Backbone:
């Protein structure tokens, strides 16, 4: 029974579950580092997931074929996520609106808009049709390459853990590493962090606060859109109403747990991913161990609270986060 | 009252007028934009909104349905508004509502055989306490380690839903195929308005409406005339100044979030005792989240929460007729809600802009 739970598939699915969380969390990191709170990650993911799926469904029957269609769907998801985030940027940077309120409005709007468009396009609530092809696995090494025995087991673990994923899972890891480098090793990163810590000082030395914050919000929207594409086009293959189901908020917690750093966000997401993967595995054996499945379903949310309760020490947010900047 | 400083505001009548009318303008703008969306999809916005209005205020029965939908929103709107007044964003009112509903459903069965005059008040108070208890842990975490309440209350919301889901499929499941609790006893049923006042033929609308209005008045009184309310407002207004003035941020935060949770808990218990008679997985259609929209539209004023909740109740009650007659998806209501919040929140910017323009005009005139 233990091998039903503790197997390479558990860790591989931890990476799968972590991917959308990590992308949104890194988006949140970049956004908050620039001084803008983004609780609309949830809505931006939803928008990306919907339009990505809609584009794929529209194009898969044409001459370009279903595989090209799903890649265009991915690009559409990123673009629509970024486009939707422009509303948040405009509201919080130019209108100096309460950022949490703008985010809440966008979350409700995204839920309504995607639901409304879904019924208008496809004639029914719930889910869209399935896309014909989801984003394909990147590597396809033979499972039995190393035969049976110890070597075979080792190969199975390596192959499942490292080579069984679809493209966005690898993109997320790359984005975490590149993001970390960009934030700490480039001029852009120093400037971005200055915007979130002390915008007045940044402004004084000639950094354009408005432009820098716009860029950060749009990047976070694009990443949230990519996270949506991962859910709809890689993991599920359809768009379902409210399919993000709170992931945007867990991503925010992962960002805090990861201390506002891209790699930290990824690792924190991996922890949530692992809890969720474990939860799914445990559900399969829940009747055998006589624990109701709901207790496993709660795990990721309980973990989020425990993490925020500061078991791991208190994290310090960027000093100017959430505060609109007004030029003197 | 004596000897206590008041938070004084300057009287700027134009500013006050803008503040007062901005919700109305916001609603109109939201209706216009959603009309455009409806029209863009080849449906008739005039038919849609006429059906929406008839479906919510067209007859006594429809008005009753509007009140029925508005009551939980009044409670959750008050809950979120009380949080905002204290500088807290209780985004997890939905979870506290589930806990209040759970207390109501459980005690409604246990105490349902008793007299209405004992059972009803006892259960309603228990529901409020259950909501407060569910807000207590996030409140303490906020006060002690600064864990952001937006995330913790949200997570507690999910946890509450899974607890209810487990109880209605397991320990508290009523006999039969459907995962739900037993029907509450007669002593626990909140009477309909028409049963108390036969002249008001308001269909299914129940006496929870009166409780909600009473709570709004009570909250207004607490905020304006009690030390607790004063401290809440002071911390919400400027926490550092409040602390310098001798108010404990930590204990005010805990108290405020628990009061907010209690109001959300009332939403749940009243919904169970007045409408559903039991609890099940989907007994709330996102009342906690719509409460946020209600509070923002009401600008966190407890009295204004009443009309704001009636407006949102009307949107939800009328949306079925709108779908039936104009074939417009119900989801358009969420679009309207999102737009309303958005436009209401632009008010400070708009008033500042107008003030600046007026200054320019007077400067030019001189």
Residues:
């Amino acid at each position: 029974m233990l091998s039903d739970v503790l197997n390479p598939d558990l860790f591989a699915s931890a990476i799968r579950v972590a991917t959308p969380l990590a992308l949104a969390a890194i988006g949140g990191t970049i956004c908050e580092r620039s001084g803008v709170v983004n609780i609309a990650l949830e809505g931006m993911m939803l928008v990306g997931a919907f339009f990505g799926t809609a584009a794929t469904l529209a194009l898969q029957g044409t001459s370009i074929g279903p595989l090209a269609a799903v890649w265009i769907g991915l690009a559409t998801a990123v673009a629509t996520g970024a486009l939707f985030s422009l509303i948040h940027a405009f509201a919080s940077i130019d209108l100096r609106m309460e950022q949490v309120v703008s985010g809440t409005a966008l979350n409700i709007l995204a839920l309504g808009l995607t639901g409304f468009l879904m019924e208008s396009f496809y004639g029914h609530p719930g889910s869209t049709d399935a896309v014909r092809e989801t984003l394909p696995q990147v590597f396809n090494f033979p499972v039995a390459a190393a035969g049976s025995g110890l070597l075979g087991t080792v190969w199975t673990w390596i192959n499942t853990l490292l080579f069984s994923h679809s493209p966005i899972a690898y993109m997320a890891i790359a984005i975490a590493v590149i993001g970390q480098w960009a934030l700490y090793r480039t001029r852009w990163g120093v400037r971005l962090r200055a915007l979130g810590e002390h915008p007045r000082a940044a402004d004084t030395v000639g950094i354009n606060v408005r432009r820098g914050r716009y860029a950060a919000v749009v990047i976070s929207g694009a990443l949230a859109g990519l996270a949506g594409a991962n859910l709809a086009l890689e993991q599920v293959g359809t768009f379902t109403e409210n399919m993000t189901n709170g992931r945007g908020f867990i991503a925010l917690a992962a960002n805090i747990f990861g201390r506002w750093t891209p790699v930290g966000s990824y690792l924190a997401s991996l922890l949530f991913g692992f809890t969720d993967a474990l939860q799914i595995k445990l559900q399969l054996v829940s009747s055998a161990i006589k624990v109701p499945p709901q207790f496993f379903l709660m795990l990721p949310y309980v973990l989020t609270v425990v993490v925020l309760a500061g078991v791991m020490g208190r994290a310090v947010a960027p000093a100017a986060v959430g505060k609109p900047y007004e030029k003197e | 009252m004596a000897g206590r400083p008041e938070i004084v505001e300057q009287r700027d009548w134009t500013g006050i007028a803008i503040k007062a009318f901005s919700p109305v303008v916001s609603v109109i703008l939201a209706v216009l934009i959603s009309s455009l969306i409806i029209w863009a999809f080849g449906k008739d916005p005039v038919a849609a909104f006429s059906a929406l209005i008839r479906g919510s205020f067209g007859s006594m029965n429809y008005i009753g349905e509007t009140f029925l939908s508005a009551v939980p929103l009044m409670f959750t709107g008050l809950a979120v508004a009380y949080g905002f007044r204290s500088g807290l964003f209780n985004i997890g009112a939905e979870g506290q509502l589930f806990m209040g509903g759970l207390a109501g459903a459980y005690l409604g069965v246990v105490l349902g055989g008793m007299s209405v005059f004992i059972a009803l008040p006892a259960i309603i108070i228990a529901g409020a306490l259950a909501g407060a208890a569910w807000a207590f842990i996030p409140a303490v975490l906020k006060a002690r380690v600064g864990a952001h309440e937006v995330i913790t209350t949200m997570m507690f919301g999910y946890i509450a839903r899974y607890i209810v889901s487990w109880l209605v499929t397991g320990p508290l499941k009523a006999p039969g195929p459907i995962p739900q609790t037993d029907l509450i006893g007669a002593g626990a049923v909140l009477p309909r308005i028409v049963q108390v006042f036969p002249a008001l033929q308001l269909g299914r609308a129940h006496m929870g409406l009166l409780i909600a209005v009473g709570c709004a008045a009570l909250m207004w009184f607490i905020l304006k005339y009690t030390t607790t309310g004063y401290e809440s407002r002071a911390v919400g207004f400027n926490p550092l100044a409040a602390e310098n003035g001798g108010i404990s941020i930590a204990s005010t935060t805990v108290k405020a979030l628990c009061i907010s949770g209690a109001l959300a808990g009332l939403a749940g218990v009243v919904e169970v005792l007045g409408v559903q008679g039991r609890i099940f997985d989907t007994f709330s259609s996102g009342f906690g989240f719509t409460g946020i929209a209600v509070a923002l539209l009401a600008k966190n004023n407890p009295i204004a929460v009443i009309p704001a909740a009636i407006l949102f109740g009307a949107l939800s009650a009328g949306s079925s007729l709108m779908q039936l007659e104009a074939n417009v998806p119900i989801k358009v209501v969420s679009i309207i809600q999102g737009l309303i919040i958005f436009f209401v929140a632009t008010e400070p910017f708009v008033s500042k802009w107008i003030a600046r323009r007026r200054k320019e005009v007077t400067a030019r005139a001189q």
User: Anything to note?
Assistant: The mean pLDDT of chain A is 89.
